[in-house]
Amino acid sequence: MAQQPNEEASPGKKKKQGAEQTQPAQPKPGANPAKPHATAVREHGPRNAPGAMNEPGAEKGRKAHQESATAQEANVSGQPAGSATPTAEKEKKGMKGHAAKTSPAPAATAAAAARATPGAAASAAPSVSATGQQRGQANAAAAAAKKPAPQQVQQIKAQHANFRAQPKPQQVPAVTYNQNYRIQGSDQWQGSQYEVFRSYRPEWHDQGWYRSRYNRVELIGGGYYYWNNGYWYPAWGYDSGAQYYAYDGPIYVGHRAEPPDRVIADVQAELQQMGYYKGEVDGLLGPMTREALTAYQADQGLATTAAIDEPTLDSLGMS
Questions:
Q1: Label partner for 97 (CA 20 to 30 A): which of 80, 122, 138, 283?
Q2: What's the whole-number mean pLDDT along residues 126-143?
Q3: b or e along 44-79 (b: 16 or more beta carbons within 10 Å of the residue's beta carbon)?
Q4: What are the distances in angstroms from CA 198 to CA 195, 204, 313?
């Protein structure tokens, strides 16, 4: 038999064996292979750094070591090292989206905090109440600053000493009789000064009935009124031809029994000077006058009756 040439003596075979030694370690079965571009992440330093080997054989060995380390990382994580960054970014975005969906709104968070700490909510209540009280005091002070001086009030009353109101149904519509009518909100007005408003019930009677019960029944501003204990009331039914009333309810004038139209004119003039009333001084308790009274009463902290009552007339300095 012919003698086979020695494998070590063959130059080509020797180069092939050297190349096999420099090949990276093969991953275990079932592991995900590493992508070629992942090796760029595992750089250990500059190629020509001091102490590094620059020979060709050393360069090949270093590359093989880097590829082997990359493959091991892939075996541990189950994913190639190069795909770690995109996956992390996706997970981060997913977490942000989940947090945005599950995070409560600021208002809900504040409400939950208030429920969790009732003491804090309770401590905030006095501040709100104090703020409202301070605002009411400021409004009352501003209204008091606008009030006419007592001598001006006397001048207003002197100007209306002979005042007589005239019916003006086109400008101030008349109210109609309704036996079931009740003054709205009067059940919430506390105090004896408002009892006449709470108990007021319109009644229809003839002249004899009124004359037998009340000393004063007079035609004032287009309708008959009767006077009783500081108040004038509409005398419904006294005269069917004179039943023009701009307001159905008691009108306080004090114990001097001044005619109601004169007192209404005094109130209108004073509210006009303070900027509450923008209409004409006509002695009729119409909608514009009642709106002005409501605003003034609110600023003074009085019951908003929209009527001329005892506390309002006292506040205006006209009682």
A1: 80
A2: 57
A3: eeeeeeeeeeeeeeeeeeeeeebbebbbbbbeeeee
A4: 5, 19, 18
Q: How long, in residues, is the chain?
A: 319
- CA 179, 183, 185, 187 dihedral sign is negative
CA 112, CA 115: separation in Å to the nearest integer? 5
User: What angle do helix axes 287-300 and 260-273 make, rounded to 10 degrees?
Assistant: 60
Alpha-carbon distance of 119 to 122, in angstroms, equals 5
Look at the block and give the residue holding tokens 């880097």. 66
Strand order in the sheet with 223-228: 217-220, 223-228, 231-234, 251-252
For residue 97, is pLDDT > 80?
A: no
Q: Rounded to the nearest 10 degrees, how much is the dihedral formed by the CA atoms of 307, 308, 309, 314? A: 140
Q: Which of 207, 188, 206 is nearest to 198 (CA)?
A: 188
pLDDT value at residue 131: 64
* Helices and strands in the chain, H and E counts: 11, 4
User: In Å, what is the CA distance from 47 to each residue of 1, 35, 58, 249?
Assistant: 52, 22, 11, 106
What is the residue whose two structure tokens read 């075996």? 75
d(CA 177, CA 204): 8
Pairing of strands 251-252, 223-228: unpaired
Residue of 249, 280, 269 whose CA lies nearest to 316: 269
276 DSSP 8-state letter: S
Average pLDDT, the chain: 73
CA pair distance 55, 244, nearest whole angstrom: 122
Query: Are 230 and 318 a contacting pair, CB within 8 Å?
Result: no
226 within 8 A of 235, measured Cβ to Cβ: yes
Report the greatest alpha carbon distance in the chain.
Answer: 163
